[in-house]
Amino acid sequence: MKRMLAFLLLVVICFGAIAATSPYLMDRIKLGLDLKGGFEILYEASPLHEGGKVTRESLNETAKSLESRVNKTGVSEPEVTTEGTNRIRIKIAGLGKADEAALREKLVEPAELTFRSARGCAADKGYCKIELIGNDFKENGAAIFQDSLGGYQISIKLNDQAKFAEVTREVAKLAPTGNNQLAIYLDDEQLSAPNVNEEINSNEATITGNFTRDEAANIRDTINLGALPLKLEVKYTQSVGATLGKLSLQQTVWAGVIGTILILAFMLIFYRIPGVAAAVSLIFYIWLLLVGFWLLDATLTLPGIAAFVLGIGIAVDANIITAERIKEEIRTGKSIMSAFRAGTKTSLRTIIDAHVTTIIASLVLFFIGAGTVRGFAVTLILSIIVSLISNVVLSRYLIYLLIRSGKVNKPGHYGVKESEISAL
Amino acid sequence: MRSKETKFNFIHVSRYFYIFSIAITVIGIAALAFFGLNYGVDFKSGSNVDIAVTKNLSDQRSSIESYLNANEYGEHTLTMGTERITIRFEDVLTDAKEKQLKADFASKFDAGASLEVNTVDVEMARETEWNALKAMLIACIGIIIYIAIRFEWRFGVAAIVALVHDAFITISLFSIFRLEVNLPFIVAILTIIGYSINDTIVIFDRIRENLRFAKLKTTADLIHVVNQSVWQTLTRSINTVLTVMIAAVCLFIFGSESIKLFSLAMIIGLVSGAYSSIFIASPLWFMLKKRSKPKPAAKSQAAS
Question: Is this complex scored with an ipTM above 0.85?
């Protein structure tokens, strides 16, 4: 009777813990974009200028710059990650339709500031020589000021005073041909093309033009936003409407719930006492898996949930193997307790071997695969470990307690008919 | 040997199952050679637009079609359902076009529509496919090595044949029925592989266990061991398939539209996995074992 109480207590504690923490867990688990709506873009970076290279630093810098651009629009928690040697992935959840389009435009805007001149250019080529590029300007070095006539100008700080002096000296030499302008471009748009008449030995350049205050502020912001050190090309985008995401989530979770109930019913009917233990440990397994997801900070996606649901079906296998073994041992005429001992011992090795092979497969997938495949591998490894805890350790202990309680000692309780038992 | 007498000789009938599996494999190879796979956007560049509509638009098919044609969206295929409309664009949808489509669809057809747009560059698609293949290949080698150490190489080879068989049958059926192959499909294949190996190992484990107590003097003894082992694990095999099947069928019927094909792939793979473990893997191991009979026979004498 004490054992029965222990069993009941254990079940109550398990279910209590599950009921108490589940709402919190559900809230905390990160959902993929396909489940809550949002968009994802994968960029491939290439050097801005010919002969350049994509380095670790420039890639990180680009990612950082992209992140700050997203942050500036007020979107919360963008996920910006670099992948491999030249890729950047951005995930942004929950956006209105209008915002998304605007944000995507903002992201790809390379906003590269260049100073160009006509040095050595053919007559009809215009300002073909790029004299100064983004790296030559100080970060956040642009400011606007009002000149004496009340117009707005933009000043930019330069990193290297000597370089600017040299450039202006050379451009000033073009004065006789009338090409002595240092044109200032934001991307391919010419902002202004002031004449340079002499060497400017300063670390500050000025953009003049008939700017209104707003125009000037806008240019300043664009420059300060930081030129992306790399050129970005869109390789993949996914955009999911919030309603659609929610619908997918609801339907799939619902399918999972129905499936789980049916599986539990099957186990109870077919295996009786081991079925009871299986049902309790399976519910515990689902909960543990959610805890694991939360601890690993993993993102649950639609295929992930599907794999999760299938995993429940597969995880029950450990219970089935054990229960079948116990049944077999009972049929040979052993007492319930010794059948349990023999059954659990022999089934453990089988379960371990079957699981290790699956772990090998998932480890390989994790190290080689990318994106979805990798996420799948994590889910698989996690579910195997969790399954060993709940469907082997807990499940066994529950059966043990039930057997020791002395209430369930008939073969019928284990789904074995008396007629099947062979005499010793 | 204790428990039941063998009721069904799995080895004797194995020839028919081999023929059956080889036939399906040949049909599969032919289908793949002639039709190839019906790649979704994940593996073929382009854009896929999935629209969940709030009202039935099936009577507006022609007006949607003419809207798409009039606005130069390029080559596309339109699939209409009562709750969902899918448009597959051959070319990558630009940001501007995507924005326009979203806005226009809301204003012209259904204000409450929720869209999912997937765009994949062709280079990216190739890479994804190659990565998945590479991963599967290395996983297979890893499994063979483990099984060779823990069991013996013959079990490893037989298990891998069964595993490849299951993956291939699923891929073939998708090719024959022109079902779309996307990233979730790869996930399904991987799950199938994981399940298949699991299922096979449980039977092999039992064969190994029974071998320890068996006196192997003739081929008939070996046949007996295999039959006995398959029979002993049969209830567990069937019940496990049943439980996983319950989950897969529930996902197929009640789950979200976008994982319907994933679930279907799983259902095919599960049936194939259970079938191959029993009718392909075990007889195959027997075939391999038969040739090296004398050695284990001498060993098992001591064990019994």
Answer: no
